[in-house]
Design goal:
- The chain is α/β, with parallel strands linked by helices.
- Helices cover about 30% and strands about 30% of the residues.
- A 6-stranded mixed beta sheet has the order 6-7-8-3-9-10, with helices on both faces.
- Helix 2 packs across helix 3 and helix 2 runs parallel beside helix 4.
- The longest helix is centred in the last third of the chain and has 17 residues.
- It is globular, with a radius of gyration of 18 Å.
- It binds adenosine-5'-diphosphate (2 copies).
- Belongs to the ABC transporter superfamily.
- GO terms for molecular function: ATP binding; ATP hydrolysis activity.
- This is Vitamin B12 import ATP-binding protein BtuD.
């Protein structure tokens, strides 16, 4: 079952300094329950790609289809996790996670019930009433994951989510992320510039190569397994 289809996607930024081609001729599909990592060097267009998929950025050419329908702006069908946790600092863990379900019209009690389940899933049930500033970086990122999942998205879009964490916490979060993914019906598109991270997490790896002035390529490579 195809969840996301990207066809001949291109993006050119126009500015006073001229045009920057960030993406060109990008084609790929993700299927249900896949964990797909996109890797590539700095500046190759990874963030631009995921921002377009999230509906936060327009594209210049091609199309993005989610469940066969063109993506037009952000929506609850796509969950986002960024490197900076982007939690609401004035809301508790529970309130942060309830926010999506409440916006989607679930009643307060129902939204709270759902939030507790997602907070449980990320192992923070003791911290439902804590505030973001009381939590470690890894814990904040777990709240961000719970909040993204609470909208019950079709796909989770993660942009270098563990990039700001120290090596030990990053390792723990990678293992935790795999546990979550194995336990629920979710498709993940995960951006990283860390090949080891991609090898650990992915069942598919797509490499985005920068080809200034040429046709850009997104190539699938086999995941090396011991
Ligand atoms: P990555 O995430 O792989 O580091 P980006 O998607 O951030 O790459 O950037 C891809 C290219 O697009 C870079 O050349 C960058 O300078 C350019 N770019 C990104 N955002 C903008 C913008 N808002 N305006 C102009 N150029 C941009
Ligand atoms: P993470 O790897 O998620 O950043 P830490 O390494 O900071 O977490 O902590 C590991 C565990 O210790 C957490 O899962 C949590 O249960 C507990 N913990 C971390 N910070 C606190 C805190 N401020 N108060 C109580 N327990 C904490």
């Amino acid at each position: 079952e195809v969840i996301l289809e990207v066809k001949d996607l291109g993006k050119t930024f126009d500015s006073a300094q001229g045009e920057t081609v960030a993406l060109r001729n990008i084609n790929f599909k993700t299927h249900r329950r896949e964990f797909v990592c996109v890797i590539g060097p700095s500046g190759c267009g990874k963030s631009t790609l995921i921002r377009i998929l999230a509906g936060l950025e327009s594209h210049t050419t091609g199309e993005v289809l989610l469940d066969g329908k063109p993506v037009d702006g952000p929506g609850p069908d796509r969950g986002m996790v960024f490197q900076g946790y982007t939690l609401f600092p004035w809301l508790s863990v529970k309130q942060n996670v309830m926010f999506g379900p409440e916006m989607n019209g679930h009643g307060k009690l129902q939204a709270e019930r759902e939030a507790r389940q997602w907070i449980d899933l990320v192992g923070l049930s003791k911290f439902v009433d804590a505030y973001p500033h009381q939590l470690s970086g890894g814990m904040k990122q777990r709240v961000a994951i719970a909040r993204a999942l609470a909208n019950q998205p079709r796909i989770l879009l993660m942009d270098e989510p563990f990039g700001a964490l120290d090596a030990q916490t990053r390792g723990k979060m990678q293992a935790h992320m795999l546990d979550i993914w194995k336990n629920i019906d979710i498709t993940v598109l995960f951006i990283t510039h860390d090949l080891d991270e991609a090898i650990f997490l992915a069942d598919r790896i797509l490499v985005l190569k920068a080809h200034p002035g040429e046709v850009q390529e997104l190539i699938e490579v086999p995941v090396p397994r011991p």
